[in-house]
Design a protein that fits this description.
Oligomer: single chain
Shape: globular
Structural class: alpha+beta
Largest sheet: 3 strands, antiparallel
Mean pLDDT: 95
Order of helices and strands: HEEEHH
Radius of gyration: 14 Å
Number of helices: 3
Number of domains: 1
Number of strands: 3
Low-confidence stretches: none
Distance between the termini: 37 Å
């Protein structure tokens, strides 16, 4: 049996998201967005503005954002190639989060997978 070594990328994901998520800007093609004001302490209504939306509206909480961050960390550089990032370690620096990474993150929070792009 192979030995797996893991390292914590976000030791306190909630704190990192609280400090950085409001600065994560989408671009003009991002379809999954907060419908109104983003709240990190409660529920936020999100909407998929795409005509192909399978879930048109959904409430998300910090738990969903942490799950999305976990999925992004698990997939970046392996099965998900966005923002020219090659490793989940590169996610630690919010300056590496271009609109493509933000879009993937929003979709992972909302759908649990990237369905657009």
């Amino acid at each position: 049996m192979a030995t797996q070594i893991t390292a914590a990328i976000f030791p306190n994901a909630e704190q990192w998201l609280t400090e950085n998520m409001k600065d994560m800007g989408p671009d003009s093609i991002t379809t999954v967005l907060p419908a109104l004001h983003l709240s990190l302490k409660g529920k936020t209504l999100w909407k998929d503005y795409s005509e192909e939306a399978t879930i048109p509206k959904k409430y998300l909480t910090m738990t969903d954002y942490v799950k999305g961050l976990q999925l992004l960390s698990d997939q970046i550089g392996r099965t998900l190639f966005v923002g020219c990032l090659k490793s989940p370690i590169e996610l630690i620096d919010p300056g590496n989060w271009d609109a493509e990474v933000v879009d993937a993150f929003y979709q992972l929070c909302y759908y649990g997978e990237v369905i657009y792009g």
